[in-house]
Design goal:
It is a single chain. This protein is α+β, with helices and mostly antiparallel strands. Helices cover 47% and strands 22% of the residues. It is built from 4 helices and 5 strands; from the N terminus they run ααβββαββα. Strands 1-2-3-5-4 form a 5-stranded antiparallel beta sheet, covered by helices on one side. Strand 2 and strand 3 form a beta hairpin. Helix 3 packs across helix 4. It is extended. It starts with a helix and ends with a helix.
């Protein structure tokens, strides 16, 4: 009888620990609620945290070895939304929209992250250009979701605000919008050359 009670207690402890792990891990790391998925998601999250720690240690070493004083990066500026209506419903959080005939772009602050959404017609290579903009502006991509319907695509990013980040949400939305516009100029120029 005591063996059954010990096993029951062990399972209860295991379930309690899994609940704690699940609550400490961002939801997009855990795909399902089973034990293997929770543990796998936690492992991925810890690996990512370990990479962040290594990156911060490297930056700290570089700064300490730097002979000249390095100015500290500006804080990420939080700005109220522009008067444009966002294309993803009502959002009262701090954010910005930058819309054009080619694409609609929305960026909003969510804790220490930014949620970036774009909707446009499918443009080959566009995701690579957006990732390039995010990396150039010192954002770290935590999650990406791609949804398509016929010839329309929705890219939804969760990005971490990097230590070197020096742009506002308005500037981010504008820079991502420019990645769409530069592609349209290239397509028009290429079409004129071919004709």
């Amino acid at each position: 009888m005591s063996h059954i009670a010990v096993e029951r207690n062990r399972r209860k402890q295991m379930n309690d620990h899994l609940k704690v792990l699940r609550s400490l891990t961002p939801c997009f790391y855990i795909k399902r609620g089973d034990q293997a998925s929770i543990i796998g998601g936690v492992i991925e999250f810890i690996k990512e945290l370990h990479q962040v720690v290594q990156s911060l240690e490297t930056k700290k070493r570089r700064k300490s070895l730097s002979p000249s004083p390095v100015p500290s990066p500006r804080q990420f500026r939080l700005s109220p939304p522009q008067p444009e209506t966002p294309f993803f419903g009502d959002f009262k959080e701090l954010g910005a929209c930058c819309n054009s005939p080619v694409a609609d772009v929305e960026a909003k602050i969510s804790g220490s992250n930014v949620i970036l959404r774009t909707i446009s017609k499918r443009i080959p290579g566009q995701i690579v250009r957006i990732v390039g903009v995010l990396e150039r502006l010192s954002f770290e991509i935590l999650h990406l979701n791609i949804s398509t319907m016929e010839d329309t695509v929705l890219y939804s990013f969760v990005v971490k605000i990097g230590l070197e980040c020096q742009v506002s949400v308005e500037e981010l939305a504008f820079e991502v919008q420019q990645s769409f516009c530069s592609q349209q100029v290239y397509i028009r120029e290429h079409a004129q050359i071919l004709s």
